[in-house]
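Anyone up for a design puzzle?
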């Protein structure tokens, strides 16, 4: 039985420290007696003591663990480790699989994307944006809503951190920021935790680096003229565009 989630889902939707501890448990062979059961996966995870763990095959963050967090309905490293085992079939994880990107960083490589690469990146940005959606539920789903926003921003962070630096990619990033801003201002996203705002700020910082590495990038910032954004994030970029 193949779970309905994949490793990317687990990696981008789990907070960093929990994911890293889960990977450690998995790699040290602490997920034992793994088997498929009903609509999910069961295992004994050797933590401080052996814990019985069950994880749903549709939602990796639904299930049950005997540890303190699991008993308080909080996603724990034991459940995440079992989900990783379900996805990988017990195979080793590659470094790329384990690498967490939660912060936007500039690749530092100059260059453009080919037509094909550009269209792939645009599609993946649109895919990641789907997690950044309006909040209209009862307060009890607040946390899963917040983790959806984080997942969207984590997915975007990975995409944008791998981009080469050029006027072409700067324009792509400016367009992405305007789309995010539009969502924040007009579509009922509740970003009171500042997840999306923080991601926008990090991307603006990266674009400032872009313009140092390739002065032509500043031309892309002209698109921000006369735009009303939610919290004025465009100002530092427009300053660069003027010089």
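Challenge accepted. My sequence:
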């Amino acid at each position: 039985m193949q779970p309905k989630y994949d490793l990317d889902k687990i990696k981008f939707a789990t907070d960093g420290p929990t994911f890293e501890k889960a990977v450690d448990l998995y790699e040290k062979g602490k997920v034992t007696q793994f088997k498929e059961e009903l609509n999910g996966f069961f295992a004994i995870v050797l933590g401080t003591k052996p814990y019985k763990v069950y994880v749903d095959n549709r939602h990796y963050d639904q299930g049950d663990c005997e540890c303190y967090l699991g008993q308080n309905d909080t996603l724990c490293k034991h459940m995440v480790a079992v989900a990783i085992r379900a996805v990988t079939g017990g195979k080793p994880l590659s470094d790329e699989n384990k690498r967490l990107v939660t912060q936007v960083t500039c690749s530092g490589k100059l260059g453009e994307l080919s037509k094909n690469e550009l269209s792939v990146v645009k599609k993946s940005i649109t895919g990641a944006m789907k997690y950044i959606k309006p909040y209209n539920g009862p307060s009890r789903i607040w946390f899963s809503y917040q983790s959806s926003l984080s997942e969207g921003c984590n997915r975007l962070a990975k995409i944008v951190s791998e981009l080469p630096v050029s006027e072409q990619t700067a324009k792509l990033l400016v367009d992405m920021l305007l789309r995010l801003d539009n969502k924040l201002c007009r579509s009922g996203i509740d970003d009171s935790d500042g997840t999306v705002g923080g991601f926008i700020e990090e991307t603006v910082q990266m674009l400032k680096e872009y313009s140092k590495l390739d002065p032509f990038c500043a031309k892309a910032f002209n698109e921000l003229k006369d735009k009303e954004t939610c919290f004025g994030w465009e100002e530092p970029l427009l300053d660069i565009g003027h010089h």
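A detail worth pointing out: Residues 228 and 234 are 9 Å apart (CA to CA).
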